[in-house]
């Protein structure tokens, strides 16, 4: 289908970048740049998907266009979606990269980074993650701005959900960073953070992550339900928040952190009370 074939340059850029990074860092067993690689993956695929249709028309169709496309060339929805993705990936990528440098690496890869095949697979899985999670944005970039529907209530709802969830994630990250800095400065002796947003959920940063991708998906729906896309494309794009939720809730987010907490503080009554009273994920969800 023409729409999906237009994604090919985006797919190539995603796997190409992660392959290049793996070629550099796998032989060195260096995991400090893994999260930065993910952020760069989102930035590069966003750039390619955003500008490829314009470049294709300019080069292949020999159209007389300005060297650099004006913002008016793109639909408001496209601009919002791409700005959201760029802002999120830049902020989170720099935050995680700085943390990895300070800590000397990523504990998730303490053993795996010494296994070339397994560590390479992680980089390839990261490319797949970049493509799957960013799918609502990449798909929305495949059609001309002129055929994008005008912004509607659902779009504003999606934009608001993204903004609120992104702020939720940022505040959670900053609260934990401030808590850790205070602990390093011997200003308190708390074993784990339990105040602020961390008193509403044991993993509020991940709650924000799922929320913001849900917002991005909602912002893309009006576009993906136009006749230019096969029926059900908007549901396919829903894999973005669903995959995000599944990964952080069941794979590489909550489970290892909960196990690490139980290993460190399992016998501490305060930890047991924290787990008993604060939901593990959704603020309105279960404690287990």
From TrEMBL:
InterPro entries in alphabetical order: UstE-like
Coiled-coil spans in chain: none
Transmembrane feature ranges: 6-26, 33-54, 74-97, 117-139, 154-172
Keyword Acetylation: no
PROSITE patterns associated with the record: S5A_REDUCTASE
KW Transport (keyword) present: no
Listed Gene3D superfamilies: 1.20.120.1630
A cellular-component GO term for this protein: membrane
Domain of life: Eukaryota
Keyword vocabulary terms for this entry: Membrane, Transmembrane, Transmembrane helix
Name of the protein in question: Uncharacterized protein
């Amino acid at each position: 289908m023409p729409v999906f074939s237009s994604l090919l340059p985006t797919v190539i850029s995603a796997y190409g970048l992660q392959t290049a990074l793996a070629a550099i860092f796998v032989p060195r067993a260096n995991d400090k740049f893994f999260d930065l690689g993910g952020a760069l993956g989102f930035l590069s695929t966003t750039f390619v998907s955003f500008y490829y249709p314009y470049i294709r028309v300019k080069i292949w169709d020999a159209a007389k266009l300005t060297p650099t496309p004006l913002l008016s060339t793109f639909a408001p929805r496209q601009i919002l979606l791409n700005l959201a993705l760029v802002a999120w990936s830049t902020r989170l990528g720099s935050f995680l990269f700085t943390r990895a440098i300070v800590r000397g690496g990523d504990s998730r890869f303490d053993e795996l980074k010494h296994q070339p095949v397994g560590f390479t697979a992680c980089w390839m899985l990261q490319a797949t993650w970049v493509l799957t999670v960013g799918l609502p944005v990449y798909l929305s970039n495949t059609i001309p701005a002129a055929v994008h529907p005008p912004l509607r209530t659902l779009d504003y709802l999606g934009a608001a959900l993204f903004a609120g969830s992104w702020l939720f994630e940022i505040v959670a990250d900053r609260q934990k960073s401030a808590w850790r800095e205070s602990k390093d400065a011997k200003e308190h002796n708390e074993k784990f953070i339990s105040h602020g947003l961390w008193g509403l959920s044991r993993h509020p940063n991940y709650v924000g992550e799922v929320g913001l991708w849900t917002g991005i998906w909602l912002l893309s729906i009006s576009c993906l339900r136009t006749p230019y896309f096969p029926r059900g494309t908007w549901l396919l794009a829903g894999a973005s928040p669903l995959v995000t939720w599944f990964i952080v809730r069941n794979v590489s987010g909550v489970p290892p952190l909960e196990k690490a907490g139980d290993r460190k503080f399992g016998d501490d009554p305060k930890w047991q009370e924290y787990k008993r009273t604060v939901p593990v994920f959704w603020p309105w969800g279960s404690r287990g």
